[in-house]
């Protein structure tokens, strides 16, 4: 997370007048009060397996590094990646974050099996794909603190019954406790984005409901595919096309509702029931 910060943040490899690149969705954070608030919220400690997604010019990277002595950064911009390689204590993964195997990252000897702590000012144009990309590794993560478009965080944390509640809400709340912790105005960035931003804290649930993530994802996608219509039009047809007979618990699921009315727990329970039917089906 960075922007054209105060001079002390531009010293060393992260300075040099780098221009934000639109194709990477770069907006560099510069507001010292916001930077301090994020660092306090993360609460970095020596020995943490910290990974920052998109360090940029180092507004957040620098204070994290000062408090931990070392961290890993994921940076797609080769110029910025090269600058960070020259910085002691920083391990650079030069890659598109959507191609990074965070499980393998957690297994590297430098982290010794410690849970990852993820931080980042995520590119707003691909923030949702990144959140879904990280989902399979939630069990390897201690917490996640991300700067995102405020509208996205509202959707992540939304409860049933409102327009913000949707596929993103269900899939993330099944696996994380989600809390918006800090609002960030456009003027805090260079260049300023055209939207309001916020910082979200995501803590993986210690004992999430056991469910097939792929099946749950397909079910929820079908449910919200026609969110203005009753579930029987989207989810109902999807269930009818499944090869196995529906179990009683699934057949009793109320399809005379809209998807936005269904709590996360009910979607999970339906996926669990459908998975049991698939497991019980005889081999062809």
TrEMBL record:
<feature type="binding site">
    <location>
        <position position="75"/>
    </location>
    <ligand>
        <name>S-adenosyl-L-methionine</name>
    </ligand>
</feature>
<feature type="region of interest" description="Disordered">
    <location>
        <begin position="1"/>
        <end position="20"/>
    </location>
</feature>
<dbReference type="InterPro" id="IPR020596">
    <property type="entry name" value="rRNA_Ade_Mease_Trfase_CS"/>
</dbReference>
<dbReference type="InterPro" id="IPR020598">
    <property type="entry name" value="rRNA_Ade_methylase_Trfase_N"/>
</dbReference>
<feature type="binding site">
    <location>
        <position position="121"/>
    </location>
    <ligand>
        <name>S-adenosyl-L-methionine</name>
    </ligand>
</feature>
<keyword id="KW-0808">Transferase</keyword>
<keyword id="KW-0694">RNA-binding</keyword>
<feature type="binding site">
    <location>
        <position position="27"/>
    </location>
    <ligand>
        <name>S-adenosyl-L-methionine</name>
    </ligand>
</feature>
<dbReference type="InterPro" id="IPR011530">
    <property type="entry name" value="rRNA_adenine_dimethylase"/>
</dbReference>
<feature type="domain" description="Ribosomal RNA adenine methylase transferase N-terminal">
    <location>
        <begin position="34"/>
        <end position="206"/>
    </location>
</feature>
<feature type="binding site">
    <location>
        <position position="54"/>
    </location>
    <ligand>
        <name>S-adenosyl-L-methionine</name>
    </ligand>
</feature>
<feature type="binding site">
    <location>
        <position position="29"/>
    </location>
    <ligand>
        <name>S-adenosyl-L-methionine</name>
    </ligand>
</feature>
<keyword id="KW-0489">Methyltransferase</keyword>
<protein>
    <recommendedName>
        <fullName>Ribosomal RNA small subunit methyltransferase A</fullName>
        <ecNumber>2.1.1.182</ecNumber>
    </recommendedName>
</protein>
<feature type="binding site">
    <location>
        <position position="96"/>
    </location>
    <ligand>
        <name>S-adenosyl-L-methionine</name>
    </ligand>
</feature>
<keyword id="KW-0698">rRNA processing</keyword>
<dbReference type="InterPro" id="IPR029063">
    <property type="entry name" value="SAM-dependent_MTases_sf"/>
</dbReference>
<keyword id="KW-0963">Cytoplasm</keyword>
<dbReference type="Pfam" id="PF00398">
    <property type="entry name" value="RrnaAD"/>
</dbReference>
<keyword id="KW-0949">S-adenosyl-L-methionine</keyword>
<comment type="function">
    <text>Specifically dimethylates two adjacent adenosines (A1518 and A1519) in the loop of a conserved hairpin near the 3'-end of 16S rRNA in the 30S particle. May play a critical role in biogenesis of 30S subunits.</text>
</comment>
<dbReference type="InterPro" id="IPR023165">
    <property type="entry name" value="rRNA_Ade_diMease-like_C"/>
</dbReference>
<dbReference type="GO" id="GO:0052908">
    <property type="term" value="F:16S rRNA (adenine(1518)-N(6)/adenine(1519)-N(6))-dimethyltransferase activity"/>
</dbReference>
<dbReference type="InterPro" id="IPR001737">
    <property type="entry name" value="KsgA/Erm"/>
</dbReference>
<comment type="similarity">
    <text>Belongs to the class I-like SAM-binding methyltransferase superfamily. rRNA adenine N(6)-methyltransferase family. RsmA subfamily.</text>
</comment>
